[in-house]
């Protein structure tokens, strides 16, 4: 929903990516993190998150969810 309100805000895509990651929706997480990085290439958090999701397979993503700190 935040992406509809602020479609050019990298932070909203980064948050969406995190939510999708927590839900185990790897493809959507990758899309959101990729958009966040495209909008703000200096967003190191989005870059690290994108790299993490790309490196994890689906099973790894589901197992990794519980280890992510808020």
Account of the 3D structure:
The protein is globular, with a radius of gyration of 11 Å. It is mainly alpha-helical. The mean pLDDT is 81. It has helices at 2-5, 10-22, 26-39, 44-55, 58-64.
Care to count the β-strands?
0
Return Rg in Å.
11 Å
Broad structural category: mainly alpha
Bin the strand percentage: under 5%
- pLDDT below 50 for ≥5 consecutive residues: which ranges? none
* SS element count, helices: 5
Overall mean confidence score, pLDDT: 81
Largest sheet: none
Helical content stands at: over 70%
Query: What is the approximate shape?
Result: globular
Ends distance: 21 Å
Sequence of secondary-structure elements: HHHHH
Topology:
Layout: H1 2-5, H2 10-22, H3 26-39, H4 44-55, H5 58-64
Helix pairs in contact: 2-3, 2-4, 3-4
Short synopsis of the structure:
This protein has 70 residues and is mainly alpha-helical. The protein has helices at 2-5, 10-22, 26-39, 44-55, 58-64.
Features:
about 70 residues; mainly alpha; 5 helices
């Amino acid at each position: 929903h935040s992406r509809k309100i602020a479609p050019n805000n990298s932070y909203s895509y980064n948050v969406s990516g995190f939510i999708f990651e927590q839900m185990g929706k790897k493809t959507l997480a990758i899309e959101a993190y990729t958009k966040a990085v495209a909008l703000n290439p200096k967003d190191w958090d989005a870059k690290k998150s994108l790299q993490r999701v790309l490196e994890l397979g689906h099973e790894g993503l589901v197992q990794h969810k519980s280890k992510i700190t808020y």
